[in-house]
Amino acid sequence: MQRRKFLSLGAIAAAAMVPASLVAENYRTTKPDVWTSHTVDDSIKKLYGSNTYISEGVKLSAPDVASNGGAIPVDVSSNIPAKSVAIFQDSNPESAVAVFTVREGGIVDYSIKMKMKASGTITVILEGRDGKLYKAAKTLDVALGGCEG
Questions:
Q1: Is 9 inside a domain boundary?
Q2: Distance of CA 41 to CAs 20, 21, 49, Å?
Q3: pTM of the model
């Protein structure tokens, strides 16, 4: 019985220690037009209010040829202090893929798998804490079959 009381107190203490900074912005609610935009430039403009960016400082890794368009591995990293990181593509009808909120002091090092129905370009925009936008892009070929792989 003592063990159960101890474990329940531990769970309460752990919940109380979760910092408020872990709350992320829900971009689907606050900026719904981003998720229905059909071009990358339009999505970036609706998300950040600008299409002016610096083409350095962000590393984007993806294969040159994706054998399965339903699970393309994408890695994004940067040493720039960031507020958010957004990933877009230009082969599916809607261009926005994901937006990550980066807490202050957070490390930008993300790995995702995304779908692309055809060959195209993946674009990453990092919103810096300095208010500037930083961009990386990579064009890749999707083997026949696209998302069906």
A1: no
A2: 33, 30, 11
A3: 0.80
